[in-house]
Amino acid sequence: MAQRVTLRKRQPYNTTSSRRRIVKTPGGKLVYHHLKKLPTQPKCGDCGIGLPGVPALRPRQYATISKRQKTVCRAYGGSRCGDCVKSRILRAFLVEEAKIVKKVIKSQEKAGGRK
Hints:
Blueprint: E1 20-24, E2 30-34, H1 67-70, H2 82-114
């Protein structure tokens, strides 16, 4: 018959914070090892894909690593992915171009109305 294993922590519920694994000790006894939660990779704020270049850690562990490891050397690095930054820059450029075109058309109509 299998050996019984007792819980080491007081919480008896099978939640994500009380995951455990059965481990055999050198003395031949079976005990529970409580596991930590798995880290998730930081996601892009626009499209939601994982950010490459930023490690997946638990929130408190980001305080222990340097800023260089938490970001990417780019505008919006560590917050948005490269494709989203590219599309933001392109969108901003096109909006500015549209404003200039609108101004030129308005001035041409004004000049055409005088003649």
